[in-house]
Every structure is written in structure tokens, then in C-alpha cells.
Design brief:
The chain contains five helices and nine strands, in the order E-E-H-E-H-E-H-E-H-E-H-E-E-E. Helix 2 links the parallel strand 3 and strand 4.
């Protein structure tokens, strides 16, 4: 069995708790500095929000949202070992407001009727999934909802406005809202 990687939750009720995840080539959690920037943009508390971490991977974004008071967080992960690690982390953190589903983002967004206040989109870095999934994610936003996205290049999606944007190394990240 491959060794496990880990990342710490940086804020909220689970601050300093460690998430463990499998060592897989496409699995790279959002760095602490980027998560800190994101949650400064969003406000330190997400009380009452319903969130979707559509490409959960390590679960860093979704568990961070739960730690900061989100009412419900859905983590999507189709890969078995990563899905199982997410389930173990949810149990270890006693995060009952976190639901881990073994589904891919596109299927869930196409089939689900649920509306989200905040959707995290951080697909595998080299994939070309983001341009196709952004419009689908926009259909699942609650009124006033926002999308956080990470990609290898800056984003300017049609029908959306970039509220905030940043860059860390080769990764560009932004907070989007429907126009």
C-alpha cells in the first residue's frame, strides 16, 4: 500500500486537524496559502451555507468549509481509495454535516436538483474539465451563490464575473458569480 499524504485544516472548529489522503499522481490539495486567501475572500465563517466540493480529492476545501460552519458539505470523489479516505476523515473529524459521495462531478451536477451556495471546482490540474463543468455548476447555484475555481490559466467564463483572482505557482484561482 502506498503511503498517505496529509494536509491540515487551517481554520474553524477543526483547525489544526490533519486530513490523510492516498499518494496518487493527480491528487494535489489546495495549498494552505491559497485556502487562507480564499477564506479571507469568503469571510472566516460560512454559517448556514450549503457547499459542494465537486473534485474533492484530499477534501481540504470541503472539510475547511465544514470546519468554518457550513450547514452541509457534499464531497464528490469517484476514485475508490480517495473516496474511502474522505469517509475516514469525515468520521475522524466527527463531521456529520459532510456527505461523501462516490460520484464524478459531471454526473452529480447534471442529475442533482440540489442548489449550493458555494461550489468548489478544483479538477485534476492537467485535465480540460473546467471549461465544460463551469456552465453546469452555474445551473446548481442558489441565488447569490459563488463558484471557486482553480486552473492552469486565468479564467473569464461567459455569463460570470470574476469577483477575486489570484495565482500561486502555476495555479490560477478565482471566485466567480453569475452575472
Amino acid at each position: 500500500m502506498k503511503p498517505h499524504n496529509s494536509v491540515r485544516i487551517i481554520g474553524g472548529a477543526c483547525r489544526r486537524r490533519v486530513l490523510h489522503f492516498p499518494d496518487l499522481p493527480d491528487l494535489r490539495p489546495t495549498p494552505d496559502r491559497v485556502r487562507e486567501t480564499l477564506f479571507n475572500w469568503l469571510g472566516q465563517r460560512l454559517d448556514g451555507l450549503i457547499c459542494l466540493d465537486a473534485f474533492a480529492g484530499s477534501g481540504a476545501l470541503g472539510f475547511e468549509a465544514a470546519s468554518r460552519g457550513a450547514a452541509r458539505v457534499v464531497l464528490l470523489e469517484p476514485e475508490r481509495s480517495t473516496f474511502e479516505a474522505l469517509q475516514k476523515n469525515a468520521l475522524a473529524l466527527a463531521q456529520h454535516d459532510v456527505e461523501v459521495l462516490r460520484r464524478n462531478a459531471q454526473s452529480h451536477l447534471a442529475d442533482s436538483e440540489e442548489r449550493y451556495d458555494l461550489i468548489f471546482l478544483d479538477p485534476p490540474f492537467a485535465s480540460e474539465l473546467l471549461p465544460g463543468i463551469l456552465p453546469l455548476a452555474a445551473t446548481r447555484l442558489a441565488p447569490g451563490g459563488r463558484i471557486y475555481a482553480e486552473s492552469p490559466r486565468p479564467l473569464a467564463p461567459a455569463g460570470m464575473v470574476v469577483l477575486r483572482a489570484g495565482r500561486a505557482g502555476q495555479s490560477h484561482f478565482c471566485l466567480l458569480e453569475i452575472v
